[in-house]
Amino acid sequence: MSGHSHRHCPPTAKVVGKPKVIFQDQFHEQLVEVIHPVEIVLRHHFVPVHTHKFSFHVREEVCPPPTEHPAHIKRNKKR
Fold it and tell me: Which residue has the higher pLDDT, 46 or 70?
């Protein structure tokens, strides 16, 4: 029965509700300079490195005349 009752009702005015807000976020790149300070420390280290140097002292000696060795004499006699 309820299906037949709409035939006798006059048309109603349209009702508009409050708008529903839907957000569509869009993102755009924006360049931002980020500065990173760097401190460089130059450190000097001293390391011992050996360099070998020589000092020479020259002395002279006078040797006595050679004495004839018996083996030397025999060798001369064989010739």
Answer: 46
